[in-house]
Amino acid sequence: MSLSRIRRTLVPAVMAVALLSGCSGNGTAPGTAVSIGDDSVSKSEVSRVADAVCRSIEDNLSEAGEQVRLSELKQYALSLLTVRMQAEQVADEQGIEPNAAYHQDVVRVQGEAETIPEDLRDDYVTALSTEAYLTSLMAQMGERALAAEGVTTPSEEEIMQRGSQLFATQVVERGAEVDPSYGAVMEEGALVLAETGASVPVSGPAIEALTEEPNPDYVGSLPESQRCGDGPR
């Protein structure tokens, strides 16, 4: 897990289609980070995944003399858990189980998780195997559809393209409610940073807090509970 991946995007590109919600709002129940239909992700789940990701990159941060805002890691965790929830909803409705490639990826992520506290490992594995889970789901949806159409030897690209289209169709009408405290909203089908988060930034530090790569001095000034990494040595 690299810091650059977290900063590059809230959601890996292959997952972007998963966030095609018809609408979004901020009417989540207390303790809920995001809800879609009858399912939800709790704030405690997001915090556990963020903590696990922090533990997994601490050595890299120390070597680079860097720090990262915990809010960034929470946004990253929120994006993964949101996609996972949507994918599991569709998989359950379609009667699709993860394929062998997914289980192989789980083993890989479990290996990564050996460096973090045991009580955080399950949350880490669930979140960080999301990309493989979604890929497995879309591949099977695409294969089924193309076989039904009589396409006998589709390419992998054709399979994934059809699967992503079908998945988007399945989730497009599912409205999502996102807690505004995470500073993320559903926009044009993707979970993205809100311009102002839950409040309007009026001071220098407030504006700095919303930039994708804030000044290291600003991050270092945050309380220890709001940052990950040791910073410059």
- Classify the secondary structure makeup into a structural class: alpha+beta
Distance between the termini: 22 Å
Series of H and E elements: HEEEHEHHHHHEEEHHE
Low-confidence stretches: 7-24, 196-211
Q: Give the strand content.
A: 5-15%
Radius of gyration: 19 Å
The main sheet comes to: 4 strands, mixed
What percent of residues adopt helix (DSSP H or I)?
Answer: 40-55%
Please supply descriptive tags for the structure shown above.
233 residues, alpha+beta, two-stranded antiparallel ribbon
What does this structure look like?
It is a single chain. This protein has helices at 3-8, 43-64, 70-94, 100-113, 118-128, 130-148, 156-171, 204-209, 216-221; strands spanning 24-25, 32-36, 39-42, 68-69, 176-178, 184-187, 190-193, 227-228. The strands form 3 sheets. Strands 1-5-2-3 form a 4-stranded mixed β-sheet. It has a two-stranded antiparallel sheet with strand order 4-8. The model is unreliable at 7-24 and 196-211 (pLDDT under 50). 54% of the residues lie in helices and 11% in strands. It is of the alpha+beta class and 233 residues long. Helix 2 (43-64) crosses helix 5 (118-128) and helix 6 (130-148) packs across helix 7. It has one domain (3-228).
